[in-house]
From TrEMBL:
Cofactors (names): Mg(2+)
Protein name: Fructose-1,6-bisphosphatase class 1
Magnesium among keywords: yes
Start and end residues of each Fructose-1-6-bisphosphatase class 1 C-terminal domain: 200-333
EC primary class: hydrolase
Enzyme Commission designation: 3.1.3.11
Entries under InterPro entries matching the protein: FBPase_C_dom (IPR044015), FBPase_class-1 (IPR000146), FBPase_N (IPR033391), FBPtase (IPR028343)
């Protein structure tokens, strides 16, 4: 077994001391988020032993069936971060409305938005799941926190990250200074820096998309995937590999480790819904991580981090990962839009 590296606590303390834009109260908040993720890792690991598998028999605001672990993870986040003096309020995939935190004390400086358990269709089949979080500045001097205070574009995030509950548990985060990955050492119960300053290679031969939706995609996406499938004998002149885990956390982790492009594009299954993934607690935090690691994140028409949310649970098309590949897809969108305008 290898020796211990730097712990998350040491890393955060150093970040604050070096004045690299990491404020002391944000560092404390990140430590608090990490602590909840640790407890969720243990719950996920216990699986059937603790009776956490299966559906909860309820639906969330989006009409999706909640798994027991969705509910448990949501409550764990609300309970733990509700006790933080740095949090003014929270919003979650599993809550219809915002969850203000104040109760008799001065309001914290941050809003935390999260997907408490991402990939919940994978829980019962023992495949990787995770927690995605986004930290935004809280408004100063408002008497009552409202949903509109959360509706900030991803560029405003002061921290974004995820915990991945896989063969090992990892915490991957950015505060705007690159992307660092930590592995939970189960022997000491600490997150240890194992993947400092990740960089996503600009080129890739690996794509991730749910191919079962192919007939519902727009022409630029049809073209891009068709060309990937044609491989070395097609216009791209190279063979591609495909992956689909159905846990965004696991897909983005793969992209951060070895490159690739991940897409959940617009599709016409439900025309009023501009995509499957949620902007505020799936797309935006992942887009910040990917951009901070040198990759790119787009809806096809604009950078995800520039999308102004108009609803907490807003959906958005997502195309992110290796920079040159994302550029290839967006160029097809731009071209189609230009052709339609002429
Ligand atoms: O059903 P599909 O198309 O495979 O959807 C998979 C996508 O849905 C999600 O699981 C949605 O997340 P939740 O489990 O938090 O609802 C993403 O992680 C993933 O990319
Ligand atoms: Mg999710
Ligand atoms: Mg979820």
């Amino acid at each position: 077994m290898r020796n211990q590296g730097k712990s998350l606590t040491q890393f955060l303390n150093e970040g604050v001391r070096q004045g690299l834009g990491l404020e002391a109260d944000l560092a404390v908040l990140i430590g608090e988020i990490a602590a909840v993720c640790k407890s969720l890792s243990y719950a996920t690991r216990a699986g059937g032993l603790e009776g956490v598998l299966g559906t909860a028999g309820t639906e969330n605001v989006q009409g999706e069936t909640q798994q027991k672990l969705d509910v448990f993870a949501n409550e764990a986040m609300l309970d733990s971060l509700g006790a933080s003096e740095h949090v003014a309020g929270m919003a979650s995939e599993e809550l219809t409305d915002i969850h203000p935190v104040s109760a008799g004390r001065s309001r914290g400086r941050y809003l935390v938005v999260f997907d408490p358990l991402d990939g919940s269709s994978n829980i019962d089949v023992n495949v990787s799941v995770g927690t995605i979080f986004s930290v935004l500045p809280a408004p100063a001097g408002v008497s009552e926190l409202a949903a509109q205070h959360f509706l900030q574009p991803g560029r405003e995030q002061v921290c974004a990250g995820y915990a991945l509950y896989g063969p090992s548990t990892m915490l991957v985060l950015t505060t705007g200074n690159g992307v660092d990955g930590f592995t939970l050492d189960p022997r000491v119960g600490e997150f240890i820096l194992t993947h400092p300053q990740r960089r996503i290679p600009a080129d890739t031969r690996e794509f991730a998309i749910n191919m079962s939706n192919q007939r519902f995609w727009e022409p630029p996406m049809q073209r891009y995937i068709q060309e990937c499938l044609e491989g070395s004998s097609g216009p791209r002149g190279k063979d591609f590999n495909m992956r689909w885990v159905a846990s965004m956390v696991a897909e983005i982790h793969r992209v951060l480790i070895r490159g690739g492009i991940f897409m959940y594009p617009y599709d016409s299954r439900e025309p009023k819904r501009p995509g499957r993934l949620r902007l505020m607690y799936e797309a935006s935090p992942m887009a910040m991580l990917v951009e901070q690691a040198g990759g790119s994140a787009s809806t096809g028409y604009k950078q995800i981090l520039d999308v102004q949310p108009d609803d907490l649970h807003q959906r958005v098309p997502v195309i992110l990962g290796s920079r040159n590949e994302v550029t290839q897809v967006t160029s097809y969108h731009t071209q189609t839009a230009a052709d339609a305008a002429n």
